[in-house]
Each structure stands twice: as structure tokens, then as C-alpha cells.
Design a protein that fits this description.
mainly alpha, 4 domains, two-stranded antiparallel ribbon
């Protein structure tokens, strides 16, 4: 695989914003210019190519405005170096797009002036990254997020002091770290705006490392952000970009392909496209049929055939195939390892939702109570969302004793304070 070159920051931001080609960005800039009524705002394909080159020129003021408005990031975070040599690392606010928060980890210049750190630094940094990846499943989300975010900040600083292959190795580990932080922010803490910014940063680091499959994983995660917000078009665009990255990888494990289909199913479900979601689940199941000798990347630890079955059960629930959903989810629950508490919370919540949809409030409350037991051990915002959805479905039985007992647990001091803090 040839190494990607050029302005990887701008390219990553362009693709993350949903513009798969340089021409698509040209068209978007033209639309934004017309909307803003900006005179002399025309940008050519040749200009965009220069901006994505290894030595991008500093954009004119009018083009800076268009880029920032279109991509939702300040121009000095898009790989451009101001002519006055300001390499400030201060965060600047995002101007538009899904996120409305600061971009906190600008990458250093793509070519370091000197390699001042030995190659062993990249090896040691990657070892710590692996440790955080394992700790994610055991440590409370706020703690692991704080530590992993600081680790990512440290990696960003180190990147400016590395050269050659060690720089690429360090960038790959940094991309993994940022992906982990984004996952925690999105799934564990329900901070989609912050997570979306992390995914942009992770994609930039993956570009420095020229890690296509890791880039596909980052883009696949980023599709959840608009997908859960009901923005089907943006989610689909990010998934198309993820698949394009995967096609450029040396080899793609079948389970990774299945995961991308599972992401599609989740997004389609959230957007109310249930038939399309079932079709995506079917494609995911087809992808893992047979023997696959392609090794999985070490960082790909969030998906398995059992997790695919959990995706399927949730989709069946949303479609209204309740007996099938119950059977699928019970099989998942039976085979789920005890230490997978976060996933257990989600599956229990879905089983509670099946019972509520079938008009059985007693069974629904019992399952929701089991889910709360898991949450008392390991907080997981996505799991709590499932329980709240169940409670809304139980409103017709709000005066039942089982429902009031569930309310007592949902709104006890500790649970309420944790929910508010998150």
C-alpha cells in the first residue's frame, strides 16, 4: 500500500464532513458561497488539489470563511500554516456542522523538523494504548476517559518529535487512543458533539499513519453520530467513506465487513428505516459465513458474532418481530461472558422493551431491574437510555406496583445524581 501524502488534515475533515471527493468539496463551497452571498468566492478543483497537497498555500480570507463554514473547523486546524508562522495550539471553536464544541487536539505539522525521540518511544506509547484499551472494559467511564484523553494529548505532542516509520507507528497508536476516547464520549457518556470532534482528530492521525482499515473504523464510528440523531443522509455518507477506506486496505476481515453492515443497521433503525435495517443485518450475517483466515486487528475488540446477534435482536424489536427478537436476545444473554456488563445492560434493556411491547409490565420491570443492577456496577449511558425507553413504554401501566418500584430505583439518589452528572 502506498503511503498517503499531502494535507491529511484537510482531507480527513473533508471526508468526515461527507464530501468523498475533492469535486464534492468544490460544489459544497460554491453552495455555501451562494448562501452567504460572498463575492469572489469561486473555488476551483485545482485550488482544492493545491490545498490538499504536501505544501498547501494559505487560503485567502474569503476562502477561509468558506472552508470554516463548510467543514466546521477553524482554518488553522485544517493543515494550513499561516504566513506569519503562528503554530498556536490553542483550541478554536467549531463553526458549524454536527459538533458545536472546541477541537482540542490539533496535530503538529505533517513533517517534523527533526526526529528528537528514539523509535522505542513509539513502541512504549503503543503499549500504553493497548493497556487503556483493556482498561476500558473494567474502569468507570469518566476515569478511563480522562486518562485516555491525556494519553492522546501526550501522543499529539510526541508526534512533532518523531520521524520516519516510528512517526507512523506513533500516529497509528494515537489514532487508536483518540478513537477510544470518542467511543467513551459517545456510548458511555452520551456526549455526541465531543465524540464527533475526537473522530475527526483520530482520522487525521490515521492519515499520518496511512492506516486505511483504522480510518474505516473511525469513519464507521463517526456514522453513529448523525445516525442516532436521525440524519440518515449524513450517516450513509460516512459509511460510504468507511467502505472506501476499507477497500484500500491490504486485507479486510469478514467480521470487520459485518460490523460496517451492523453500523448501517443501527443507523437505519434509528432513522425509522426498518426494512433497510433488516437487509443490512442479513448482509452482515452473510459476511461471516464460512472460514475467514484474515487476522483481525488487535484494536478491533468491540465486535463479535455475539454482538452481531445483539444488533439483530434490537433491529427485530424495532421492526415489531417480537418473538424473534426475544429468542435472539435470550441466546445472546445466555452466551454473553459475565464481564461484558455494558453489553449485558443493553441486552436486558431490549428484553424489557420486548416484554413492554407485548403488554407484560411485570416481565418488563423485572428485566429493567436486572439492567439497573448491571449499571450499578459499571455505568453505561447507552444502557440507561434503553431503560428510559422502556419506562416510557410502560406509561400505560404507570399505577402498577411493579412500575412504581422501577421508578423508585430509577430516581433514587445515586442513580439520579449519576444521570445528571453524565
Amino acid at each position: 500500500m502506498s503511503r498517503e501524502s499531502g494535507n491529511v488534515k484537510l482531507k480527513a475533515a473533508r471526508q468526515h464532513a461527507g464530501y468523498a471527493s475533492q469535486q464534492a468539496l468544490v460544489d459544497a463551497l460554491a453552495r455555501v458561497g451562494a448562501e452567504l452571498g460572498v463575492a469572489d468566492a469561486e473555488v476551483s478543483l485545482r485550488q482544492v488539489r493545491r490545498w490538499e497537497s504536501a505544501t498547501p498555500p494559505w487560503p485567502h480570507a474569503v476562502h477561509q470563511r468558506l472552508l470554516e463554514h463548510t467543514l466546521g473547523m477553524p482554518v488553522d486546524q485544517l493543515g494550513f500554516t499561516p504566513p506569519w508562522g503562528d503554530h498556536s495550539s490553542q483550541a478554536a471553536p467549531v463553526r458549524s456542522g454536527v459538533a458545536t464544541h472546541p477541537v482540542v487536539l490539533p496535530l503538529p505539522p505533517s513533517t517534523p523538523t527533526a526526529a528528537t525521540q528514539p523509535a522505542a518511544v513509539a513502541v512504549d506509547y503503543a503499549a500504553v494504548t493497548r493497556a487503556y484499551r483493556r482498561l476500558y472494559w473494567r474502569v468507570q467511564p469518566p476515569l478511563i476517559r480522562s486518562a485516555a484523553a491525556e494519553h492522546a494529548r501526550f501522543g499529539t505532542q510526541l508526534l512533532s518529535e518523531m520521524g520516519g516509520m516510528p512517526r507512523r507507528d506513533l500516529a497509528a497508536a494515537l489514532a487508536e487512543s483518540l478513537l477510544l476516547v470518542g467511543r467513551i464520549e459517545f456510548f458511555d457518556l452520551r456526549q455526541p458533539a465531543e465524540a464527533d470532534a475526537r473522530f475527526v482528530e483520530a482520522l487525521q492521525a490515521a492519515g499520518v499513519a496511512d492506516e486505511q482499515l483504522l480510518g474505516a473504523a473511525i469513519l464507521g464510528h463517526s456514522a453513529f453520530v448523525p445516525g442516532w440523531a436521525g440524519d440518515r443522509d449524513s450517516a450513509a455518507e460516512r459509511l460510504r467513506a468507511a467502505r472506501a477506506y476499507a477497500r484500500r486496505a491490504d486485507a479486510v476481515p469478514a467480521l470487520f465487513t459485518a460490523w460496517l453492515y451492523a453500523v448501517e443497521a443501527e443507523c437505519e433503525t434509528r432513522c425509522g428505516k426498518h426494512r433497510e435495517a433488516l437487509r443490512a443485518v442479513s448482509h452482515a450475517e452473510d459476511a461471516v459465513v464460512g472460514v475467514d483466515e484474515t487476522p483481525l486487528p488487535e484494536w478491533f475488540d468491540w465486535f463479535s458474532p455475539l454482538r452481531l446477534a445483539a444488533f439483530k435482536g434490537n433491529t427485530q424489536l424495532k421492526v415489531g418481530h417480537l418473538p424473534q427478537a426475544r429468542q435472539t436476545l435470550l441466546q445472546v444473554l445466555e452466551n454473553l461472558p459475565e464481564e461484558h456488563r455494558k453489553q449485558r445492560t443493553v441486552v436486558l434493556g431490549d428484553l424489557a422493551a420486548v416484554a413492554a411491547a407485548e403488554g407484560d409490565p411485570e416481565a418488563a420491570c423485572a428485566r429493567a431491574g436486572e439492567a439497573l443492577d448491571q449499571l450499578s456496577i459499571t455505568w453505561y449511558a447507552t444502557g440507561m437510555e434503553r431503560i428510559r425507553e422502556v419506562r416510557r413504554a410502560l406509561e400505560p401501566w404507570g399505577d402498577r406496583a411493579c412500575v412504581t418500584r422501577l421508578d423508585d430505583r430509577l430516581y433514587e439518589w445515586r442513580t439520579t445524581l449519576i444521570a445528571l452528572q453524565r
